[in-house]
Design a protein that fits this description.
This protein is α/β, with parallel strands linked by helices. The protein has a domain at 5-33 and 92-193: Rossmann fold (3-Layer(aba) Sandwich). 36% of the residues lie in helices and 21% in strands. The protein has helices at residues 17-28, 56-64, 100-112, 127-137, 143-151, 177-193; strands at 5-10, 31-32, 36-37, 52-53, 68-74, 78-83, 94-97, 117-124, 167-170. A five-stranded parallel beta sheet has the order 2-7-1-8-9, with helices on both faces.
Length: 195
């Protein structure tokens, strides 16, 4: 079996992570790892695509059974975890949208315990661009809710928090094409070098 090759994409809400993950999956045929989470799905999310949505009791049972390579508490009540089986799905490599601390932990686990390779990508955008993207995602929410989502985001929007990542992309431009191309180029090089 080939070594596990994992690309992590991290950044705050509205930074453009989803656009980059989608491009990596469609262009490079990477398998998208869908973590398990205890939160409710957003209107555009589908069970098994972005996440596996599970009740807290089920998540805790899976945790006790040792089914997660990585797990974390997000905020006061939410739990998230990456199931072991997700790493075995694709020979071409995998990609996951994950918090920066989760990316660091998974990078270390993949490299040290699973004898694999990991590429960490940090994506950030200025506050105004993030606000616009959050609003575009759900036009029914008001400005106060957008600001609440931004202020309660557990992921830091500050560039220095990604200093140890392999690639950091400024995705502040209204068009995500430049950021996508940088991510695709880095991932292509990573996958090619790791074969």
């Amino acid at each position: 079996m080939p070594a596990i090759r994992l690309v992590t994409v991290s950044g705050p809400r509205g930074a453009g992570k989803e656009t980059i993950v989608t491009a990596l999956c469609s262009e490079l045929k990477l398998h998208r790892i869908a973590p398990h989470t205890t939160r409710s799905p957003r209107p555009s999310e589908q069970h098994g695509r972005e996440y596996f949505f599970v009740p807290l009791q089920d998540f805790e049972a899976m945790l006790r059974a040792g089914e997660f390579v990585y797990h974390a508490k997000i905020g006061e009540t939410q739990r998230s975890g990456t199931h072991r089986g997700q790493f075995l799905v694709s020979e071409s490599g995998s990609v996951i949208d994950i918090t920066p601390s989760g990316a660091r932990t998974l990078r270390d686990i993949v490299r040290q315990q699973l004898n694999g390779l990991a590429l960490t990508i940090g994506v950030f955008a200025d506050a105004e661009e993030r606000r616009k993207r959050i609003r575009a995602r759900d036009p029914t929410i008001d400005e106060a809710e957008v600001m609440r989502l931004m202020s309660t985001d557990p992921v830091s929007p500050h560039l220095h928090d990604y200093a140890d990542f392999d690639l950091v992309i400024d995705n502040s431009a209204p068009t995500p094409l430049i950021a996508q191309q940088r991510a695709l180029s880095a991932a292509r090089d990573f996958l090619h070098c790791s074969v």
